Amino acid sequence: xxxxxxxxxxxxxxxxxxxxxxxxxxxxxxxxxxxxxxxxxxxxxxxxxxxxxxxxxxxxxxxxxxxxxxxxxxxxxxxxxxxxxxxxxxxxxxxxxxxxxxxxxxxxxxxxxxxxxxxxxxxxxxxxxxxxxxxxxxxxxxxxxxxxxxxxxxxxxxxxxxxxxxxxxxxxxxxxxxxxxxxxxxxxxxxxxxxxxxxxxxxxxxxxxxxxxxxxxxxxxxxxxxxxxxxxxxx
Amino acid sequence: xxxxxxxxxxxxxxxxxxxxxxxxxxxxxxxxxxxxxxxxxxxxxxxxxxxxxxxxxxxxxxxxxxxxxxxxxxxxxxxxxxxxxxxxxxxxxxxxxxxxxxxxxxxxxxxxxxxxxxxxxxxxxxxxxxxxxxxxxxxxxxxxxxxxxxxxxxxxxxxxxxxxxxxxxxxxxxxxxxxxxxxxxxxxxxxxxxxxxxxxxxxxxxxx
Lengths: 235, 208
Known about the structure:
The complex is a heterodimer. Helix content of chain A is about 15%, strand content about 30%. By secondary structure, chain A is an alpha+beta fold. In chain A, strand 12 and strand 13 form a beta hairpin. Chain A is rod-shaped and about 105 Å long. The termini of chain A are far apart. Chain B is mostly helical. Chain B has 13 helices and no strands. Chain B is globular and about 55 Å long. Chains A and B meet through helix 4 and helix 6 of A and helix 9 and helix 11 of B.
């Protein structure tokens, strides 16, 4: 019964790693060459076909080797120390790569963004907010929450938001970014959220210059007329 | 202090008690009831749009007594129709925005009263009387479906009542009332460009 024998350069030993678990394969080293035998004839596996073989031979049961297409043998199989390929190619664990050390912390910056999105929040003077709430339809308020700062600015959050003058914001990962801006690069959004808001107990309000402030969730109250009026009367 | 306790229960926890006899209210009870209603009015106007109508003591007290007596008639089924008509008298004063809003402080529970009376026949004299009252006080019956058209002139004469009425029919998702010619443009204005988000069923009903 015929089998295939291939000869590879020692430099290509690593290529045998892809076939080391194939049953019946034996390998032996001969100088700068590696001999592999036990490959069945017919249509070999694709992983064997792509091996960088220097020579390929057919071998009969008497271990006579033939060049492809030749009717007479060109040689006999050299007497080598054949071992299963599984033992010939040893598995080694990869070396753990240590994380790189950043010499300087990354500065969080915002950059202009051309994507047009509907706003999720609005920062407007409390007076403006109260005037709107006083006559606004209830149905436009029922989805909104608001918080008021000491300098009488109201941050109104929820969609659909309201058409009032003020700064509009887009909400992502509990971060409010000024409309028309995004992080530079945008992919750091989730990292910023994890770093600056690890317990996720509030909303980060970013300004165009990259400065930010955290507003805890319990500072927000439902946007009812009484809540806005009473808030305004207390400030 | 039957009426006072009734009003306090209604406002504070939505649970009320009535006595099993039709007895006139004591003067002190009526005085204290008025104090309660006035206080409730002061709290309630914080939720009203624009500037709420002023407090009308007579209308507020009439409505509270009416509601109390209506609950009694729902529970005391041995009382006859004549007694009912003698006791559940309509409001005798002028229907102004102030009266409409002050009466609403307790008449806003009229839809719940209909729920309470749902075990009664639609032809029951009490149900008929309550429907008449609901028809006369449209601000309080925004959530009640009524086939008859309602006079909204008093409501629409006051900016605060008008907006609050539109809020109520939208909150009740009362398509029939929202479709009324007087209300439709105001409902559209309230929903603005977000009708599909805020009330998806609203617009398709007009395209049918």
